[in-house]
Amino acid sequence: MKAAPFAYHRPQTLDEAFDLLDRYGGDGRILAGGQSLIPTLNMRLATPAALIDINRLPGLDGIRESTDGLVIGALARQEDVARSPLVARHAPLIAEAMPHVGHLAVRTRGTFGGSLAVADPAAELPACAVALGARIRVAGRGGSREIAAAQFFRGIYTTALAAGEILTEVVIPASPGWRSAFGELARRHGDYALVGLAAHGRISDGRVDESRLVYLGVGLAPVRATKAEAAITGRRIDGAVLDAASAALDADLDPPADVHASAALRRHLARVLFRRLLTRLVEGS
Ligand SMILES: Cc1cc2nc3c(=O)[nH]c(=O)nc-3n(C[C@H](O)[C@H](O)[C@H](O)COP(=O)(O)OP(=O)(O)OC[C@H]3O[C@@H](n4cnc5c(N)ncnc54)[C@H](O)[C@@H]3O)c2cc1C
């Protein structure tokens, strides 16, 4: 199938983009990398009156250090993020997760901001953003605001973006003394994960002082395993602590069953990732 007819606009400034978003209301869709939107149009799951192509908006594709932390522009291509030395240095969790996002062809067009705006519960970057305590900057006709990643993802394909707003950049605060590890289990590399885990923790002398353990693929949005985090806080990780924390993890998760995996399989995979990544986090490997 091919997409239904639509008008195409390529604004050169944010103000022009806001005018177009106002003009079309809910019938205008922002086009970034097109890797999620265009298949949806081609399958006629969406039939917007207009596409508002934001690829020419200036200044939204950079990756830079700032006093706030690492700033990644919404239009930075996923593959540029994957190869960025700044991301490797300041957000190794994202660098480790990026190769799991689709395939090279997808990452070459797909944007960092697009992946967050889609809010697929099985996507890697939303879970990383929550684990890293990222702040998401959005702009609208009335000005700009920042939304904590933990509050941004509201449900399946649903975010805190209001009508007429554009995600402009993401700030990842510095977290000295924290380590990170990412892992996921998928049937084939490049497929959306059955289950994934973005783990970020402050470790001292083999003890977990603080952590954010965020799962993907187990709920309607990224799921923070707060009970498991509590079970490891202040502890040295050994077999007994891992057993207790795995039991706590069961209470954190209520994974869905679908054609790809049963809920029981997802629970099992979540425990496997938990043990694997916590060991890596503590060993610093
Ligand atoms: C074969 C295939 C495999 C894939 N595998 C994975 C995977 O394993 N993991 C994964 O995470 N993703 C995967 N994806 C999705 C891919 O990462 C997309 O690139 C990404 O989800 C959307 O980014 P985009 O720039 O292409 O956005 P688009 O497709 O252009 O837009 C997607 C949606 O977000 C909105 N949007 C985009 N940018 C903004 C913005 N700046 N402000 C406000 N709204 C915006 C659009 O209006 C649209 O509704 C896959 C895609 C394909 C085709």
Outline the structure in words.
The model has no long low-confidence stretch (mean pLDDT 96). It is built from twelve helices and 14 strands. The termini are far apart. It has a five-stranded antiparallel sheet. It has 285 residues and is an alpha+beta fold. α2 (37-42) links the parallel β2 (28-31) and β3. Flavin-adenine dinucleotide (FAD) binds at residues 29-37, 39, 74, 101-102, 106, 110-111, 113-115, 117-118, 120, 123-125, 161, 166-167, 192.
Could you name the key traits of this structure?
alpha+beta; 4-stranded antiparallel sheet; 285 residues; binds flavin-adenine dinucleotide; globular; 5-stranded antiparallel sheet
| Distinct ligands, ions and cofactors found in the model | flavin-adenine dinucleotide
Topology as H/E string?
Answer: EHEHEEEHHHHHHEEHEEEEEEEHHH
Which whole number gives the mean pLDDT?
Answer: 96
Distance between the termini: 47 Å
What fraction, in percent, of the residue positions are helical? 25-40%
Q: Please compute the radius of gyration using only Cα atoms.
A: 19 Å
- Order of adjacent strands in the largest pleated sheet: 4-5-10-6-7
User: What sort of overall outline do the alpha carbons produce when their principal axes are compared?
Assistant: globular
Question: In DSSP terms, counting alpha (H) and pi (I) runs of 4 or more, how many helices?
Answer: 12
Structural class, by secondary structure, is alpha+beta
